[in-house]
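Structure catalogue
Derive tokens from sequence
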Amino acid sequence: MDEMLIPKRIHIAPVGFDQDRVVLPLKKMSAEKVYLIIEQKSEKDKGRFYVESIQKAIKKMKLNCDVELRPSDVIGRDLFSVLKTYRQIIEKESGNKIYVNVSTGTKIHSIAGMMACMIFSSEKTKLTPYYVVPDDYNEPEDHNPFASGCKDIFPLPSYKIAKPEDKIVKSLKIIDQLSTEGKNISKSLLIDEFSKAGLLQVKADTTINAKYRSLERNFIEPLIEWNFIKTKGKRQHLEIEINSEGKNILKFLG
């Protein structure tokens, strides 16, 4: 069988104050690649020592496992920055078996890991979150790992969470851009902009009322249901504005 058709075993492991709980699962689960999620501000990263020790341990144990570092904003507790990093990795490794370590790093990492598995799992790409039970817990002082050993590895259940269609995300990006430009976003403006972007496909002889109905049914109503926009006014005079939920979703889906 062509090697390109065989799914690889990819791990995503946030780096905190652990070494064994990152490295030992790679050996036990025969990982072929691991993405280490690290703090993007390396000069402020208190766990930088563990990034280096993990890399050395992987090399010392002669694991046949490639290592790639992926930075995100952990110090700022930015959940959406971490989610975006996870999404980019998952898209890059589409078609492979992806295992997400939710026992290392921060609570933000754990939340993002579970959310990513629920949102981005598909028939093509299987995502499995797992938790590593250590042999012992330590006091993380003087580069002493928070935990040591790998007593057991538990796969966790990952239930599906729906995500908005691509056309909804694209329409939201346009609304956000128009808002950034300081424009009053009306239905007529969105009809023009969505038509230019190929989102709203209407025939040349389509009546204006039919265009409004198509805009409402395919974009305005779904955006309101997802709670991504807020509106004021009525009918043709309706004005649209992206809200905080809409801005947050664009941080990792946009």
Notes: The domain at 3-155 is CATH 3.40.50.10770 (Rossmann fold). The chain has eight helices and eleven strands. The longest helix spans residues 208-225.
